[in-house]
Design goal:
- Two copies of one chain form a homodimer.
- Chain A has 353 residues and is of the alpha+beta class.
- Chain A folds into three domains: 63 residues, Winged helix-like DNA-binding domain superfamily/Winged helix DNA-binding domain (Arc Repressor Mutant, subunit A), CATH 1.10.10.10; 156 residues, GAF domain (Beta-Lactamase, 2-Layer Sandwich); 94 residues, Enolase-like, domain 1 (2-Layer Sandwich).
- Chain A has twelve helices and ten strands.
- In chain A, the strands form three sheets. Chain A has a five-stranded antiparallel beta sheet. Chain A has a three-stranded antiparallel beta sheet with strand order 4-5-6. Chain A has a two-stranded antiparallel ribbon with strand order 1-2.
- In chain A, a hairpin with a 3-residue loop joins strand 5 and strand 6.
- The termini of chain A are far apart.
- Chain A binds a DNA duplex (30 and 30 nucleotides) through helix 3.
Amino acid sequence: MELDARKLEILFAIIENYQETGEPVGSRTISKLDRLNLSPATIRNEMSDLEEMGLIVQPHTSAGRIPTDKGYRLYVDRMLADQAKKAEEPRDLPALPMQDLLTRRIDRVEEMLLKMAQILAANTNYTTMVTGPHSRKSKLKFLQLSPMDKGRILAVVVLSGDIVKNNILTLDEEVGSDELMELNFILNKRLTGLSLEEINLSVISGLKNEAGDHVEVVSKVLDAVAETFAKEDSYPVYTSGAPNIFRYPELTGGDRASELISTLEEKKTLGSAIGSLTSPAGSRQDIQVYIGDEVPVESMKDCSVVTATYSLGDGVQGKIGIIGPKRMNYQKVVDTLQETMSHLDGIFLQTEE
Amino acid sequence: MELDARKLEILFAIIENYQETGEPVGSRTISKLDRLNLSPATIRNEMSDLEEMGLIVQPHTSAGRIPTDKGYRLYVDRMLADQAKKAEEPRDLPALPMQDLLTRRIDRVEEMLLKMAQILAANTNYTTMVTGPHSRKSKLKFLQLSPMDKGRILAVVVLSGDIVKNNILTLDEEVGSDELMELNFILNKRLTGLSLEEINLSVISGLKNEAGDHVEVVSKVLDAVAETFAKEDSYPVYTSGAPNIFRYPELTGGDRASELISTLEEKKTLGSAIGSLTSPAGSRQDIQVYIGDEVPVESMKDCSVVTATYSLGDGVQGKIGIIGPKRMNYQKVVDTLQETMSHLDGIFLQTEE
DNA sequence: TGTTAGCACTCGTCAGGTTAGAGTGCTAAC
DNA sequence: GTTAGCACTCTAACCTGACGAGTGCTAACA
């Protein structure tokens, strides 16, 4: 069977109507549309064909049609292709209230990401998740040891991409202020600019030689550094708008709501799931759309997820995901994500200059 | 009407049965209990009296009884009083898996608190919330300026209670490494040990005099310090076990689940609400029980909340709250919180030594 | 006087039946 | 190829009656 232009138009009309109402769409509803001036009977014939092609289904005999995953997939692919073509055209979305993000007082990228997740959730009425910035090839920018109390020092570790982590180290030996500065100097000289892999045994033994008496401090600092790198690998995850799932009855029936909320609370699972996502079907830019079963998280098989990869330069990057029902407004979500990306780029460039 | 021992026993039997089943309790159920060998008819008479006293109600004419807020309040007060008396007795609860918390690698108190919230939620099957450590009279312990890139420095601010915050400052002027160290020294000399109130105009102008050319740096650092104090006031809040509310149908009917989850996600509202709680009825130790309407959060009027105040010394303290249905197992929750508190004390003492 | 057995009564739940309406597929005519 | 008409199907909503849990009241009992 052939999928001609009219069938496509009808399919898309069904999808868009279903997106708005959440109810199965009948032939009468479609026939009322002006652009394809057709009687319900004709629509019914076409619908029957579309069903045969696996693009729509009836929940039960005397009901209207709803799109299948395959139907959505067709719709989304077409949409993304269209968008790629006319990417130049100005689009007039209501501007996101992202101004706040531009404030100079971004002390932690993480805070900004969380805020971004909140803005996205509020604007789309879906649930958002954002993985913290992350890099396979991040390097040690510098570290800073400061005396705190008797027997305790504060070690601040800074990685490329401005990932900062504080470690309070408890020492058995006493280290004087001057000695600490000396150590600080040595450690930075030896370690600055190295990645985790590059801090190998020879570097370490060289360091320990040079450190003289203060082997304990050095090894604890090294532990802290290793842990910072490791933590960086563990994808911190921020979510927002979890309660939005209650807007969509198809996501809250049975235990679904509970399972979804649980998944969102288990940030770790979520983080590695979203982190493992890679472009399946070659799609536009960094934006990926996963529909129903394509989502690699069991409890989200009734959802669709749209992800985008943001990049803060230096190879530091992370993912933003928007989770909604399969009938989510893909167009709006993709547009919104795209706008968010350009904002992020703007912020990044500004910081960089 | 008088509340004799037998009435009390029946009331408590009703409460405990209702806690287990979540179903209204009938007279037959109670009469089956061995300890008060009574016929259903007698129980009915007593129940009728209890209802007149406002301690129990019937959801509808031909149903069993469920406790009222007043009934729970009586039960809880009695329980807390009992517990105070026999506080010495060893209690054999299944030990909480708190060992993890004892690990030395507590780089941030916050992480430990989150983990604690998770353990509590998993063990009680209720929802937990924990406010971050917080102090009205916290002081600046020290600060540390480090050069980062061209035009940017990292300012680490440490408050009493080991509250550490990083601030990346973007400067218009260029500051050399030596000058930065000098500034570092001056700032620490002038500011260390002061609380927010004590950093007044005269301190600031003195500082600016001494700083010479680098007024910009000083004022930006002061902003960062002020913000750290302010942030400290804003109660970070961790929650865990939100999905547990789905275990209790009385909390998930209608829009209740959605509202509860929303409230939990709005950490800020939650923080100030839980922060504002003060001991209403004088109760045992630091543990407070709020039942139904006593909870100062609109969406939690169908819940009970048990809170405990933890203290990390130096006046630094925070609150733990356990949120569950009104029929929650108060005994278990109070015991568990008490055990957690002693664990925390243990950790704190160990860190201090 | 407190306790208990018996009984009529109330009310919510559940299964079964009915109805109205939405939507379809098919057929025949245009 | 399109459309009108019609019989058919299925769900949701509503009603109904039977059932059972639980009560309150009364009268008898220890």
